[in-house]
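User: Reviewer 2 asked us to show a designed sequence for the structure in our supplementary figure. I'm pasting the structure tokens here. Could you produce the per-position amino acids so we can include them in the response letter?
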């Protein structure tokens, strides 16, 4: 998303809030380093899934949060006080997430929580954080209807409906009308549930839909059924590399569209030679950064010796947005005042957010970046999605 596009779409007050956030996020160059912070730390919690089924995502989020903490403290902290992050692992379990959230709130007395990693954990802890007006920066999109009432739970990734619309927008705008779908029984099923009724709205038809188990290592049978219908494109909704490999083995030569959950270097490496001609609606193409991403990408590369993707970026954004809110409300402000200070537009490294929006995230189709995998490399596309 360009700065010009943000300026055109936002009113004056919203733009001013974004510029303030940009100033806080971007002023991290060594020349601007501040004295070492002192005094009592400002303590926040990070509730992540660093073990269990979501561990790959949670570990990437941990890297982003740690990097943001290091940068903030390297610049003098928040109002001269150091930022402390207490990390808890929920083991990818909603029940564990509730127990760990209680510990963060009542034992460690954190000012806010970044995370959880998964939507089930987010829904679970919201029942105890919202009554206390404790800000939560969840790494999931808006979920069940009850979440609309939780106005202090801010969402850092798109809803599954928005993910579905991002994929179908590309298909529609590129004349891909006959669509085959391969999806797994977990994450893929959730996205497909949001996608399956959008065919008429986007002028496409789903000619064959095949489901496979989330742990499957060979989906050749399902892929062959899709191939037999001669689709214009194939949508694969899964974080597993297996369907991509099988599709290439069957020489299905049509464009492959996927979702941002697959756009990671680890998944691409596991795809092998199949990591080619795959379109992703995603957010961070570190090989070709947008202006608002450069500080984050450069700091991440210097810290970890590799390029980041969006899972690390959303955690960086959450900590940075929270630090900005603490500066505005005051480090010791009551929860409701801090929560109110956070409800504003914020330009992160991932995308432009509007935490005052009805879904407490404000992400839009225009905020997606589209990339094409070419022989294992992410290449930014010039395409921008528009509303139907």
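Assistant: Here is a per-position design you can include in the supplement:
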């Amino acid at each position: 998303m360009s700065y010009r596009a943000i300026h055109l779409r936002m009113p004056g007050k919203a733009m001013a809030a974004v510029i303030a956030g940009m100033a806080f996020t971007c002023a991290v160059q060594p020349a601007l380093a501040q004295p070492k912070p002192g005094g009592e730390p400002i303590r926040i919690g990070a509730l992540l899934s660093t073990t269990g089924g979501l561990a790959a995502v949670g570990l990437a989020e941990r890297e982003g949060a740690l990097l943001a903490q290091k940068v903030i403290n390297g610049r003098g902290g928040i109002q001269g006080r150091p930022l402390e992050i207490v990390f808890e692992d929920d083991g990818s379990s909603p029940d564990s997430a509730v127990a760990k959230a209680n510990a963060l709130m009542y034992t460690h007395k954190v000012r806010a929580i970044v995370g959880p990693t998964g939507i089930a954990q987010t829904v679970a802890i919201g029942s105890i954080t919202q009554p206390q007006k404790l800000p939560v920066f969840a790494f999931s999109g808006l979920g069940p209807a009850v979440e609309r009432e939780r106005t202090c739970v801010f969402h850092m990734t798109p809803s599954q409906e928005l993910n579905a619309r991002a994929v179908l927008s590309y298909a529609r705008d590129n004349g891909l009308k006959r669509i085959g779908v391969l999806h797994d029984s977990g994450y893929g099923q959730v996205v497909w549930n949001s996608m399956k009724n959008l065919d008429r709205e986007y002028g496409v038809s789903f000619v064959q839909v095949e489901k496979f188990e989330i742990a499957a290592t060979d989906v050749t049978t399902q892929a062959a059924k899709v191939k037999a219908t001669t689709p214009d494109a194939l949508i694969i909704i899964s974080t597993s590399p297996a369907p991509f490999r099988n599709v290439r083995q069957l020489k299905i030569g049509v464009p492959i569209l996927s979702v941002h959950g697959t756009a990671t270097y680890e998944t691409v490496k596991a795809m092998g030679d199949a990591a080619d001609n795959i379109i992703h609606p995603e957010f961070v193409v570190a090989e070709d950064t947008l202006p608002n991403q450069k500080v984050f990408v450069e700091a991440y590369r210097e810290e970890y010796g590799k390029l980041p993707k969006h899972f690390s970026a959303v955690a960086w954004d959450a900590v940075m947005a929270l630090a900005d809110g603490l500066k505005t409300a005051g480090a010791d402000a009551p929860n409701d005042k801090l929560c109110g200070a956070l409800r504003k537009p914020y330009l992160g490294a991932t995308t432009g957010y509007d935490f005052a929006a009805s879904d407490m995230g404000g992400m839009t189709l225009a905020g997606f970046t589209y990339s094409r995998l070419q022989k294992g490399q992410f290449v930014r596309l010039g395409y921008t999605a528009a509303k139907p």
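For the response letter, you might also mention the following. Residues 55-74 form the longest helix (20 residues). The two ends are 19 Å apart (CA to CA).
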